[in-house]
Amino acid sequence: MHSIWAVAKNTIRQALRMKIAAVFIILLLVLLPVMGLITTGDGTLKGRLQTFISYSMSLTSLLLCMFTIIATTFSLTNDIKQKQIFTVLTKPIRRSQLLIGKLLGVTILSSALLALFSVIIYTIVIYTPKFYNASQDELKQVNNEFFTARASLTPTDIDVTDEVNKLYEKLERNGQIPPNTSPRAVKALLTMQKKLEKRAAEVGGELLWEFNNVKPLDPNQSIFVKFKYDVAVNPPDLQIYGRWVIGDYRQIQSGKIETPIRYFDRKDLIRTVYEVEVPADVIAEDGFLAVGFINTTLNDTVVMFPPKDGLEVLYKADTFTANFIRAALLILLRLVFLACFAILASTFLSFPVAILLCLTIFSTATVSTFIVESFDFMSENVSAAYRYTLKPIIQLLPQFDKISPSKFLIHGQLLSWSMLAKVAGIMICIKAALVLMLALLIFTYREIAKVII
C-alpha cells in the first residue's frame, strides 16, 4: 500500500505541474461566478437558477472529464517516453501497483477539484434568490419546483405489441407499406400511435391513472400533477377545458370516505406544461393515488397526453442539498470510468493516440442513447449490419446522456441513492473494473525495454 500511495502522490504532483490543469482550473474559477451573474434564463428566478445549474454542471463535468483523460494518459505515457519507468520498475513495486497508484492519484485530484467547483456552484445557487428581487409567488415556485428533490411517477407503459403486429400484417397484406421501408421503423411509428390512442379522451370521455407507493417526505405538504395537453384539432383559442379528479376512488365503491377527493376545473393552453398543486391528504394510507381527467363537452376535439411528458405525479422525497451531492457523485463516477479507460489506452498507445481514443469513447458515451435509437429508423440492411456490429460495442459503454446530473437538478427531480448505487454498480464495479483488469493484463505482459547485447 505504501508503494501505491507513493505513486499516487507523485501522479498528483505531476498532474498539477501540467499547464492544461492550470488552464482548466482557472477557467472554472472564473467562469462559474460570471455565469452566476449573467445567466437569466426566461427572466424568472426559476429560469435563472435552471439555466445556471444546467450550464455550470455541464461545463464542470466536461472540463473535469477532459482533465482526467489528459492527466491520466500523460502520466503513464510520459513515464514510458522519458524512460522514467525504468527507474520505477527496478524498485520493489509491481506493475499492477504502478497502474493502481496512478489511477488513485488522478481520482483523488479529480475528486478534490470536483468538490471545490461543486461548493462554488452550490453557494451561487443558494444565494442567488437573496440578490434577486423576486416576488413571494416566485419564491414559492422555486421552493416547490427547484429547491427540492421530487420523486416522479408516470403512468405504466401499456404493452401494445400484439395490436401493432396485427396492424402491421394488415397494412402489409393491403400493400400500404412503402417499399424499402424498415419493418422496425414502421412498427416503432405504429407503437407510438397506439400508445397515444391509449392516452386519448374523446369529447365527454375520461382517462384514469392509478399510482401506488406514493409516499411524500412530509404528508402535510403538497403533491403536484404535471401535465401537457395535445389535441387532434386545435381549438379556436388554443385552450382546453378539463376537469381533474384526484384522490382514492376506491372509497366511493366501499362507501367509506377516509381521505378527501379533490376536483379541479381548469382551462389551459395546449402543448404547454402545467402543474396542479394538490394537498397530500388525497393519498390513501397504503400510498394509493388515482388521477382522473374528463374531457368536458365544452371542448370539440380529442384530448391526448403525450407518452413522454403528458402526465406525471411529483412529490417531495428528499432535499435539494442531498440531491445536489448525489448529482456531484454521478459526475465522479464518470471521472473514475474515464480514468480507468485512459489507463488502458496508455498501456499500449502513445500519448496523442491515447487521447484521441479516450475522447472518441467519451463523445460516443455522451450521445450513445441517441446513436442507438437513430439506427432503428434506418433501412433494414443498414440496421441489421449495425445491430450485430457497432450496436453491441456502443451498449458496452456507459450511457452518460441517459443519466445526466443536471437533468435531475433542473427540474428538482429525485436522484435516489438506489439509482446512484445501480449506476455505480454497472459503470464502476463491472465496466470500469473490466477495463482496469484488461489494462493490468496488457501492461503486465508488455515489453518495456529490450536487452541488446
Explain this structure to me?
- The structure is a single chain.
- This protein has helices at residues 2-16, 19-38, 45-81, 84-89, 95-127, 136-145, 161-173, 183-198, 250-254, 320-346, 351-366, 368-374, 380-387, 390-396, 405-410, 417-445, and strands at 149-153, 200-201, 206-211, 222-228, 230-231, 239-247, 262-269, 273-279, 289-295, 303-304, 311-318.
- It folds into two domains: 2-148 and 319-445, no CATH class; 200-317, Jelly Rolls (Sandwich), CATH 2.60.120.
- It contains 16 helices and eleven strands.
- Strands 1-11-4-8 form a four-stranded antiparallel sheet. It has a four-stranded antiparallel sheet with strand order 3-9-6-7, with no helix packed on it.
- 56% of the residues lie in helices and 14% in strands.
- The chain has 453 residues and is an alpha+beta fold.
List the helices and strands and how they pair.
Layout (H helix, E strand, L loop, with lengths): L1 H15 L2 H20 L6 H37 L2 H6 L5 H33 L8 H10 L3 E5 L7 H13 L9 H16 L1 E2 L4 E6 L10 E7 L1 E2 L7 E9 L2 H5 L7 E8 L3 E7 L9 E7 L7 E2 L6 E8 L1 H27 L4 H16 L1 H7 L5 H8 L2 H7 L8 H6 L6 H29 L8
Antiparallel strand pairs: 1-11, 2-10, 3-9, 4-8, 4-11, 5-10, 6-7, 6-9
